[in-house]
Amino acid sequence: MNDFAELDDVFHVEGEAAPRFFVRTYGCQMNVHDSEKVANLLLHAGWRGADDADAADLLLINTCSIREKAEHRLYSDLGALRAWKAERPGRILGVGGCVAQQEGDTLLRRFGHLDFAFGTHNLRLVPALAEAARAGERAARVEETRSLERFDLPARHPAFAGRGRRSAYVTVMEGCDLFCSFCIVPHTRGREISRPAEGILREVETLAGAGVREVILLGQTVNAYGRHDLRKGRADVVPFAELLARIAAVPGIERIRYTSPHPSFFDDALVRAHGELAPLCPHVHLPAQSGSDAVLARMRRRYAADDLRRLADSLRTARADVALTTDLIVGFPGESEADFAATLALVRDVGFVDSYSFKYSPRPGTAAAELPDRVPPEQAQQRLERLQALQRELTLAAHRARVGTHTEVLVEGPSRKGDRQLQGRDPYHRVVHLPAGGEAPEAPPGGPAPGEIVPIDIVEATPHSLLGRPLLEQATYHPLRKVKEAGHPADEAGWIRGADAQGAHPRR
Ligand code: 5AD
Ligand code: SF4
After folding, report:
1. Per the confidence metrics, is the pTM higher than 0.85?
2. Closest Cα partner for 258 from 212, 226, 222?
3. What is the DSSP letter of 329?
4. Are the C-beta atoms of residues 254 and 211 closer than 8 Å to each other?
5. d(C-alpha 127, C-alpha 18), whole Å
6. For atom 1 of ligand 2, which residue has the closest CA?
7. CA 350, CA 22: separation in Å to the nearest integer?
8. Within 13 Å, how many C-alpha atoms sit on residue 33's CB side?
9. Which atom of ligand 1 approaches the CA of 260 most closely?
10. 185 in ligand 2 pocket by Cβ < 6 Å?
11. Which range is least confidently modeled, 13-22, 271-280, 462-471?
């Protein structure tokens, strides 16, 4: 789990008379993907997507409880939504995700205008819950299950507008059995469960057939995939490295990512896969949490800082240019200045290209919430700032080292900066900005289209992103050719066609 951006996800589709839904999503990629799954289920049940909450008849909030701040967002949202609900009779409000899983009925009791709550194992119930709510019923459904049924979801509805035409999330496992002492996840997502390999491959094939080129495999400890089942002799799972190899062999799949792995589950085969599988992106998100062995032990992380240094070395031996990113917590109970210095040392030694760093937030019911020696908030804040300053330095240096080199960018869409640039990701998962070319960033005449993989030159570096310039004359090497050869539908607004239009981009 990384990328804890707080997102408003719009599932926009065309449609007329059908009632409309909108999903507001907080938290990790797993939550974003759960919102996609719910949106898809609702589309299959006859609902249509709304552009925003104002246009919606059904509003769902998919919640996160990883830190206190995320949880508070729900409560302030719910307060504000009393007016939304009162504005139009018949409006329905539902809450899902980690807070719903923990609080269930309590939410319904506390918020009279809330119609239903659904837990992390109950996504498939949402259309029925929404239907019941229209008939005036209120319910909380948060039962945990160990059934594999939760992976049986319908294929993408024609109106589905999830992560994009070219990049898709695919769930491979869910839950966590590790119980790191700071983490609420095992309490909200339940026990580790792996999806049968066959279902994963079928989904990837279907996605590739629809033009998807990048799959992002999701799981709370994604590289623990199948470990319990293999030990028990379950025949429908394979080792994680083998799963990657099978996915890499699916025609049309050009990029594979996975998130988030746990450092303890990198076996030799997985490390080697990074050198052997061409579509496997040279980026590993390796959540370290701390560089102090004493803190790691209290966190119950099951590794020492030197294990991470060795793992980083092995990954670089397998694939020299692999980019490593991480998650770090500062101010964990009992963290001394020396412990914190060990974290800074680890970050420097491994040379993380980027990191997500957080102040420790005690979560009710977790082991660390009971630990003595809390770090004062001002001290935690100061450590966070020192850590982030070091990271900015490392990120900028890594970015600068790439100026003048080539890479390929999977274009995601208009830049978030709103400056009429496009933004996308390179294989190392770095954000790259590109000139949009035309008037409208969504369909720039002569420029790359969202969903395209564009060869570029890196011309500038900032601590947050790279600036790229498309290499128009390399169009013949463009992977789109491969996709066409493999019999997949070509792009309506493909980059190749854009290249023919000429002029909009500076030529090299
Ligand atoms: N406090 C602060 N950060 C946390 N994380 C998980 N639990 C907590 C907590 N209680 C961080 C970890 C994890 C990331 C998703 O969030 O770094 O990897
Ligand atoms: Fe949380 Fe640890 Fe499980 Fe990650 S491995 S989800 S940090 S308990």
Report:
1. yes
2. 222
3. E
4. no
5. 14
6. 183
7. 42
8. 21
9. 18
10. yes
11. 13-22
Q: Which ligand is nearest to the CA of 224?
A: 2
Res 486: pLDDT: 30
Of residues 2 and 19, more confidence is placed in: 19
Per-residue pLDDT tens over the stretch 366-421: 999 999 999 999 999 999 999 999 999 999 999 999 999 999 999 988 887 777 78
Q: Which token pair is 378? A: 């001002």
Query: Across-strand partners of 93?
Result: 59
Look at 154-163, 210-219, 286-295, 368-377 and tell me which has the smallest mean pLDDT: 154-163
State residue 189's pLDDT score: 95
- DSSP letter, residue 156: P
Between the CA of 185 and the centroid of ligand 2 the distance, in Å, is 6
DSSP-derived secondary structure letter, 193:
E
Q: Which residues of 25-40 are buried (b: 16+ CB within 10 A; e: fewer)?
A: bbbbbbbbbbbbbbbb
Type of residue numbered 164: G
* 4-21 b/e (C-beta count within 10 Å ≥ 16 → b): beebebbbebeeeebbbb
Query: Is the beta carbon of 65 within 6 A of some atom in ligand 2?
Result: no
User: Is the per-residue pLDDT at 188 higher than 80?
Assistant: yes
Contact, 253 vs 245, CB < 8 A? no
Structure token digits, residue 230: 């293999």
User: Does 11 have pLDDT greater than 80?
Assistant: no
Choose one of 4, 358, 366 to mutate for the ligand 1 pocket test, by most ligand atoms within 8 angstroms of C-beta: 358
**What would you report as the CA-atom Rg of the chain, rounded to the nearest whole angstrom?**
23
* Maximum C-alpha span of the chain: 66
